[in-house]
Amino acid sequence: MRGMYWMLMPNYKKENFLENKNKLPNFFWTGETKMNCLKNAIHNSLDNGYAHHIQRLMITGNFALLTQVHPDEIDAWYLGIYVDAIEWVQLPNTRGMSQFADGGKIATKPYVSSGSYIGKMSNYCDACTYNKAKKFEDDACPFNTLYWNFLEEKQEKLKTNFRMKMMYSVLNKMSNEDRIKIAEKANHIIENIDAY
Ligand code: SF4
């Protein structure tokens, strides 16, 4: 990470391969969300200035990428709250590994997952308002809706990535009706993010 930082800066700090533009949800600064995994990971981060690598990568980073937040906003959050965040290590981990904003210089594919992965790796889903098995119903886990919507919206940029082929094969077998429902629900989540 240190070598990549010194080799790729200063342009690395401006990379935004996926052209993400959204704002970071306000609840990243309060932990006030009904999504139990995010609530715990954010409170843990704000209270201790620390979170486990997997909480950073697969919960907060994953959610920010799925909601297509501008990488500048993610960098500012990670740099601002973690006691071990020094730019040479934070920037390649956040912009590269977590947000895939460098188009694959650090990671070979975006670290995105649906709620079922979080359900397998933790006990957060058992006490959550949302249902990790649903994609677009009222109580569907937002990670699921946003995951399929992210793949749909970034298809042109990611479809040739060998490691994404299986996910795109599943997406492209879904009915048009389901894909429309996912897009509508994902837009609602992104536009009303602090209500979720
Ligand atoms: S159901 Fe979804 S939002 Fe709730 S804890 Fe599980 S992954 Fe997080």
Describe this structure in words.
This protein has about 200 residues and is mostly helical. It has two domains: about 1-100, DNA Cyclobutane Dipyrimidine Photolyase, subunit A, domain 3, CATH 1.10.579.10; about 130-195, Deoxyribodipyrimidine photolyase-related (Arc Repressor Mutant, subunit A). Helix content is about 55%, strand content about 0%. The protein is built from ten helices and no strands. It has helices spanning about 1-10, 35-50, 55-65, 70-80, 85-100, 115-120, 140-155, 155-160, 165-170, 175-190. Helix 2 crosses helix 3, helix 4 packs across helix 5 (about 85-100) and helix 7 packs across helix 10. The longest helix is centred in the C-terminal third of the chain and has 16 residues, at about 175-190. The N and C termini lie far apart (about 35 Å). The mean pLDDT is about 95. The structure holds iron/sulfur cluster. Iron/sulfur cluster (SF4) binds near residues 115 and 132. Iron/sulfur cluster binds next to helix 2, helix 6 and helix 7.
TL;DR?
With 196 residues, the chain is mainly alpha-helical.
Write the layout of secondary structure elements.
Layout: H1 2-8, H2 36-48, H3 53-66, H4 71-81, H5 87-98, H6 115-121, H7 142-153, H8 155-158, H9 165-171, H10 176-191
Helix pairs in contact: 1-5, 2-3, 4-5, 7-10
The structure holds iron/sulfur cluster (SF4).
Q: Provide mean pLDDT, rounded.
A: 95
Q: Give the ordered list of helices and strands.
A: HHHHHHHHHH
Bound molecules: iron/sulfur cluster
CATH fold name of the largest domain, please?
Answer: DNA Cyclobutane Dipyrimidine Photolyase, subunit A, domain 3
CATH class of the largest domain: Mainly Alpha
Report the total helices: 10
The count of DSSP E runs of length 2 or more, i.e. the number of strands, is 0
Strand content: under 5%
Largest sheet: none
Structural class given helices, strands, pairing? mainly alpha
Taking pLDDT < 50 over at least 5 consecutive residues as the criterion, the unreliable ranges are: none
* Envelope shape: globular
CATH architecture classification of the largest domain? Orthogonal Bundle
User: Number of folding domains?
Assistant: 2
Helix content: 40-55%
Give the distance, in angstroms, between the N- and C-terminal Cα atoms: 34 Å
| Alpha-carbon Rg, integer | 16 Å
Report the CATH superfamily of the largest domain.
DNA Cyclobutane Dipyrimidine Photolyase, subunit A, domain 3
